[in-house]
Amino acid sequence: MPDYDVIVVGGGPSGSSAAAFLSRKGYDVGLFDKESFPRDKPCGDAISGKSVRMLEKLDIIGQVDEAPNSAARGVVFSSPKGDEIQIDFPENKAAEWRKKRGEDASPYTKPGYVCRREVFDNVVFQAARKFGAEAHEETPINDLLWEGEKVTGVKTASGDEYTADLVIGAGGALCPVARETGAYDRDPDHWVAAIRVYWDGIKDLGDDIEIHFLDSVIPGYFWIFPLEDGRANVGVGMLESKIKEDGHERDLKDLLEKAYEHRLFKDRFADAEKVEGSQRGWILPLGSKKRPVHGNGWMLCGDAASLIDPFTGEGIGNGMTSAHLAAERYDEVSDNGGPTRENLAPYEQRLRDETWDELKTSHRLQKMGQHKWLLNFVVSRAANNPHVAETISDMLADRDKKEELTSWWFYLKLLFK
Ligand SMILES: Cc1cc2nc3c(=O)[nH]c(=O)nc-3n(C[C@H](O)[C@H](O)[C@H](O)COP(=O)(O)OP(=O)(O)OC[C@H]3O[C@@H](n4cnc5c(N)ncnc54)[C@H](O)[C@@H]3O)c2cc1C
User: Fold this and answer.
1) How many domains does the chain have?
2) 308 CB within 6 A, ligand 1
């Protein structure tokens, strides 16, 4: 008998969600993480509507709602030229979308949150524990155990071995399960590098998340996301292939410094204070390139499966969605042939059905967003015409409508609005 039904490598939102969904169904789950919780993770800390739906499925949305966070009420965009638009997230939109999808009403109607990952991830990790997963903290996994072509367990850095019917790799961008199974693929056209830093006391911090396509930062973007108590998550990110381009290398730290000095922000940062030790960089595997996400005895979830939205940089929602789909599939096959490569194939299919169209659209938007003239044009049209601003807000928020944003017809029509 194996030690566990399922071993989950990585206790971030993807791994902890997978462990929580599976434990709640009664499976024996071992959840391994190299760190101990609560722990920080470099991120913009934006928890989108997709994540909110998964938190509802796990019945832990109330805990996130009550944790220190700020409810994002809208978004501000600025163009390289310096025009700005502010778009509210309509309060009742979340309820409207839920109804459209035939889902139950929820008492929590906030469209999303900005919640520090130190807080957010701990809520999901502790939920997995509460549902019965056995947590192994400060236990890095270095290797997989194999029987022929089947993964049968994991080996820790200190040499201990644990066996399982299924191993789920949710160890983030450098997940050992993705690397050991050959799924890992570092293509600089499909990976972003980003830096995050916390600041206290930035002037004019509202309830909006701010995304600035500054001249000095493009083809990346600069963000300011408000947190609780006047704190903000600030950062900059860029495609790895653009960081090293045409023989020269851009330095993200320099770009960040330039952003603070930009005429739009100089005054806002003048009296603000950087939270010591909070500047940290990390990498984002984007969902614009597919990688294998299952095999004999293993599945990948979240960043390990490369599912981050290429336009917005959001990965938590797709990570938790993949965890839900992986848990459902294991439940279907555990007593019905087991987690063989063939039996797990529907996981990959369902994951693509759920995410691929939106990821493709976002990839096209990411490429269009590298054209300064286009950003200048769209933001200035929207800044001067509230109807255009509202249309774009609806399109960004609704995955069915988002695709229209990649059609040149839409931009041609904007000329006449
Ligand atoms: C700067 C930045 C800004 C971002 N902003 C946003 C945002 O605002 N909103 C959003 O939705 N997404 C954002 N993302 C993406 C988001 O952070 C990821 O998509 C998300 O963390 C994926 O969750 P995960 O559980 O798959 O992986 P992770 O959160 O990376 O969790 C992986 C876990 O695995 C553990 N682990 C790693 N290796 C091992 C090992 N060998 N053994 C055991 N454990 C291991 C780690 O300790 C970690 O706890 C951002 C990313 C970056 C870098």
Assistant:
1) 3
2) yes
